[in-house]
Amino acid sequence: MPTPTSFFAQSEEVIQLFNVWAAPFTTRARVDHIWYKCGTTEEFEQLRSLVEPTSSFLYQSFISGRRIAFFKFKPALATALGEIQFLELSDQKPDG
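Above: the chain sequence. Below: its structure as tokens.
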């Protein structure tokens, strides 16, 4: 299983790809969070346990019968469209 440190290290390649895609929008758009919808409850649990130790805070609630967790990254992920400080992680819907 990846470690919290590897999460940020592995994000560098994805951020570089994102920055290339975002280049035309840098004067008109800003980002502040990532939304990720998990395909399974197991994936939700795995990602939550990966990100939680490196977060400044975690807020979790039930919305429409599924868990939604909101994390603040520590440190933020720097991108061409601004710093991504938050991750919104959605559990699988109860109906699958």
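The radius of gyration is 14 Å.
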